[in-house]
User: Fold protein-disulfide reductase from Triticum aestivum.
Amino acid sequence: QVKISSIEGDTVAVYFSASWCPPCQRFTPKLIEAYKELTSHGKSFEVIFVSGDQDEEAFNAYFAKMPWLAVPFSDSEGRKSLDERFEVNGIPHLVFLDAKTGEVLTDEGVEFVSEYGIEAYPFTAERIDELKEQEKAAKDNQTIHSVLGTPNRNYVISNTGEKVPIVDLEGKYVGICFVVNGYPPVVEFTPVLAKIYAKLKEVGEKFEVVAVSLDSDEESFNNSFSSMPWLAIPQGDKMCQKLVSYFELSDLPTLVLIGPDGKTLSSNIADIINEHGLDAWEGFPFNAEKLEILAEKAKAKAAAQTLESLLVTGDIDFVIGKDGAKVPVAELVGKTVLLYFSAKWCGPCRAFLPTLVDVYNKVKEKNSDFEIVFISSDRDQSSFDDFFSGMPWLAVPLEDDRKAYLKKKFKIRGIPSLVAIGPDGKTVNTDAKTSLAVHGADAFPFTSERIQELEKKIDEMAKGWPEKVKHELHEHELVLIRRPRPYGCDGCEEMGTSWSYNCAECDFDLHTKCALGEEKKGDEVNGQDAAAEAAAPAGYVCEGDVCRKA
Assistant:
């Protein structure tokens, strides 16, 4: 027991955390490291842990790893009072106090420690402003050394462990590539970048890549770095975390491009590479002139697109039916083809499948020149086989390189997704799922002209609908409005477009058919319920009627 009056420290941090909280588990080691460094340097600093654990056993196990003090777990009233006093709405939460006056220095301690570490001490607003000014000055005077090096390290490393002096990178274009071992978007991006890297080296361009690993352990770092032909900042180097803040990292993959003068040319060229694939090397060094050339080439490619150019690769000129039967792509030429991006693990995909099967059967009854090709994001053959068994259409095999190409080409960020290819092989609709969900089989052949025709019919019908309605699902009056973008119906929980009955105050919407009683809420499995049946893999998050890359 430590008397509060005897706590030493000009600055005291109150740390709200819990052992069950993954973000807390990631942040606590950073705070421990900062605490040990500050105390070892004689800084006047203390931390008080306020637990959010459910039981004392969990509290004891978590607190045992911490080198500081804690409010006793038994003092539930004291912990609750602190939660309320500092308005703790989420954890980890770190409040810095002036120990002499009790004044709150900042309640953004988690951000400050994550971004600046011990450099933020004593965690006052003045010190943070000072650091931001230093950051701005560093960016104004940026060099390749200030980006990659530290006072104690003037080199980066190869995957064989060789130390490569940073001075060797002067005068080159340098890509700063943020990586995480096993993270799907990074795993998909790395081989493409490696081919572009090799091509640029082959044609003599002065280009290098330096990986910045966000892995927390050396084994994960080594697993990913061993397959990379470029350089890296050593694993665990504090510069890795600093660069996250410095370049305001918000997405993965991210490839920052530094010019020969050491200045940042682009905060992220990964999107360009994802869009153009291996052809992106022709856009190097990705200035406006070269990007215009890439765009023109992409337009020409799109104009020349055929179904075969999408689905035929080398000797692989087929898709599969049931029992693995090979169906030549040539048999699909001249048809309207929907590319169906989906997976069994995705709850919204399982919820959408019965609707798609119903539409497929209705369209096929009247139009033989129609087909769907399933492109799976499943992780194993048994899941693929089980999900595909409920589909009356064709598929690209699970282990097939065409899948990655098609996902990149059509920028598939979430599933389920439907892309419509017309009889001439050109793309006619990259969001056929919304068209189909709203208009059903009537949306065929999914062209913009057909959708506009259907929208006009709905607009004519809207003239006969009441301007306002009262509905049992909502307490306020609902107003008929024209919707410029798709929305989710709070009644049947399906997508809608064009018109809705809306409560602006509550952000509540009903399809017109739901609001007017033309259709009662179905008992189909919705995305949220279905999602409970299987977990999304790393790199994805399922919300509403779609699973997206996180």
Summary: The first strand starts at residue 11 and ends at 17. The chain has four domains: 4-132, 144-293, 307-454, 465-516.
